[in-house]
Amino acid sequence: MSVRIGLISDIHVDLNRIQGEEVVTSLLALEAVRRKLDILLLAGDISSDYALSLKTIKALEDASCVRVLFVPGNHDIWNENYPGRTAWESYEALLEHPGNLARGAAALSAGWTAVGDLGWYDFAYGDPSFSRADFKRMSYGKRTWQDKIKSVWDRSTLDMHRLFMERLEKRLIEAAKTNAVKKSANVNFVAAATNAMQDADQAVSLDSGATGQKIIFVTHVVQIREFTVQNPGPQWKYFNAFLGSPEYGELALRYGTKLSVCGHVHHRQQYVRGETRFVCPCLGYVTEWPAPADPEKQIAETLQVFELGPREAIPLTNARGQAAVERDSNA
Ligand SMILES: [Fe+2]
Ligand SMILES: [Fe+2]
């Protein structure tokens, strides 16, 4: 028993228009069918309008008959079309869809669980030559990071990051417990009935040693430093601060998630550290693609497909090419 999952992020359907036409939704649905997906997972930034994002997810499901899971991205909660609307209002409206991992963990087939949420940032990726006060301004030169204007939470940036960290860690603990229960059930059905929760607690208390959990961990924001803008010029030395936090990657490693997915930075990369494969599968903006824009090719190249089996997440090669995979030399 296995399940085929396709990973993609930052499809930005409102911006990725060619000659005025939105092309991504129908082409992505076609590609999901062509690659025989059971699940399509979107790691946020579907559009810059929560209602359009919900509509797009429904259209993807209707056209492909593939189950869609997603986490919201920072763009999905922007209020540029709804002056005065808070980020929470859009975040909560997006919870309406059962595939939103922000509602809670999702059980997949073959004993896999998906855990995810938007995540936020803690400035840790910014260059240390800037102060915390510099980052709190969210402006450098003539450019302002648009979340400052369009994502209006009721608490500070750092408090939002801590809130998402706490939520995600709780869900990872639950998922690890469930996995431990299943493992003990496989060994001894009778013992599992009486001791499973005790075993699970023990397994979780050893969290720093957890490896190889059949968990897909998803955030929109960047989980590892390797996915930030490398060799940044002066602007990105500053704006890297708003890409995410290494604490999300540390969570993934602490709970031994086999697959960890993020978006936001518009890269297409993979990085393997120990038993965790970090995947950043961003479609990005049409303006970032080579000209002339070929959305079908871009979608086919970006979508990363894995077969989630009884033991491993096996990457399925794509005739159009695979994201470059780097491995931690210390792993
Ligand atoms: Fe994006
Ligand atoms: Fe984003």
Structure description:
With 331 residues, this protein is an alpha/beta fold. It has a single domain (3-327), classed as Metallo-dependent phosphatases (Purple Acid Phosphatase, chain A, domain 2, 4-Layer Sandwich), CATH 3.60.21.10. Helices cover 35% and strands 20% of the residues. The chain has ten helices and 16 strands. It has helices spanning 24-34, 50-64, 87-94, 132-137, 147-150, 157-187, 189-205, 234-239, 246-254, 295-302, and strands at residues 3-8, 17-18, 21-22, 39-42, 67-70, 106-107, 113-117, 139-140, 143-144, 213-219, 257-261, 268-273, 276-281, 304-308, 313-316, 324-327. The strands form four sheets. A seven-stranded mixed beta sheet has the order 6-7-10-11-13-12-16, covered by helices on one side. Strands 5-4-1-14-15 form a five-stranded mixed beta sheet. A two-stranded antiparallel ribbon has the order 2-3. α2 (50-64) runs parallel beside α3. The chain is globular, with a radius of gyration of 20 Å. The protein starts with a strand and ends with a strand. Residues 45, 73-75, 220, 264 line the site of one fe (ii) ion (FE2).
In short, what is this structure?
Helices cover 35% and strands 20% of the residues.
Largest sheet, strands/sense/barrel = 7 strands, mixed
Cα separation of the termini: 30 Å
Low-confidence stretches: 186-209
**Sheet/helix structural class:** alpha/beta
Q: What does the radius of gyration come to?
A: 20 Å
Task: Please tell me the total number of domains.
Answer: 1
CATH superfamily: Metallo-dependent phosphatases
Strand order of the largest sheet: 6-7-10-11-13-12-16
Count the helices. How many?
10
- Please state the second-level CATH architecture: 4-Layer Sandwich
| Secondary structure tally: strands | 16
What's the average pLDDT?
90
Range of helix content: 25-40%
